[in-house]
Amino acid sequence: MKKIITTLLSIACLIPSLNAWAVEFKYSSRFPDEEASGKWRNAANELTISGKIERGDTEKFYSFLRENRRDALFGFSTIELDSPGGDVIEAMKLAQAIKEFYPDIYVSGTCTSSCVLLWLAGGQHVMTKVQTIGIHRPYFEKEYFAKLPMHEAEVQYDKLSEQFKSYVLKQGLPQSIYEKLISTPSDKIYWLTVDDYILIGISPPAYNERYKSECGSIEEKHARKKCRNTILSPERSKALDKVFEIKITSDKLKKVYNNDEKTVYADPTSIRRHDNVVTMVSLMDFKKEQKLEGGPMYLTLNVEAEYDCDEKQSRLLRFVYYSGNMGGGKLLWADNATSLGWSAVTPIAGRDHLLKIACGKL
Description:
By secondary structure, the chain is of the alpha/beta class. The chain has two domains: about 20-210, 2-enoyl-CoA Hydratase, Chain A, domain 1 (Alpha-Beta Complex), CATH 3.90.226; about 250-360, Surface-adhesin protein E (Lipocalin, Beta Barrel). Helices cover about 35% and strands about 25% of the residues. The strands form two sheets. Strands 1, 2, 3, 4, 5, 6 and 7 form a seven-stranded mixed beta sheet that branches. Strands 8, 9, 10, 11, 12, 13 and 14 form a seven-stranded antiparallel beta sheet that branches. α2 packs parallel to α4 (about 90-100). The chain is elongated and about 70 Å long.
């Protein structure tokens, strides 16, 4: 009996440690909640990814984003990693999902094995300390080879290895460092040095060339940052629309307001409810071109907002500008409304009708 109890206790002690290795997505560095002053909203501006990468983590990542749209809008300027790696194929899928947001990626603890695929996915990938980023030959989970005849196993290994190589080289890992990676056994680690990081560079080659072509001649720091945001904001907006499945089509819109300047529409298909708070997208279609401050001319402004159905108030989340009418033409700019809190809904420009549609009362 004593032996059985000892065995059960040993198993019980193992369970938390196994769960602790599972990958975790967590927002941190949240903005202060100063709703009364209207200065800030309680939203995240940093995402931490920690733990072992396993099959299904990419869908887990998307589900995490959908759970709170407000945090998702603000949580991708920076990602911090602390992971021992895990399933290489799943890591490539997760890296591709992250890559679409072009975040700046740092390592808060250590990032080894397939975690490096996530690090390379950043619009900027930063190494601040030595012996924090480790590489070795890819190790594929046994499920990818189970019960395969030997010749099929060889084909599978070549296929997966080529996918891995293609990805890391495309994301800027130099051939010389790739050779160090492939020559390091999967049970050993080669830690990237400062010289290695200089060779890798801070950005993937395609990103770097795009940035230089438009912003390379700008010397002033804030102007360079604004130029970079001009390139990245439309891409991040497209990625968010993909995650939230937002695709505005004119035949699904409801007209709520019209005057000599613009027509305002609600998009009921974009409605997402969380308790008494509803998120919905509206579209402002202008009859004459409008000037985006410090930017180009636009004819459409999409506004994503939250509506509190009980308190009859709203707060803005995101603005997306298009060059053409009804969301047509080029996506010019997207921005988050970081400085606006809740406000009472008024009849101005059909806002009361937007509230009713969002809350299912119209």
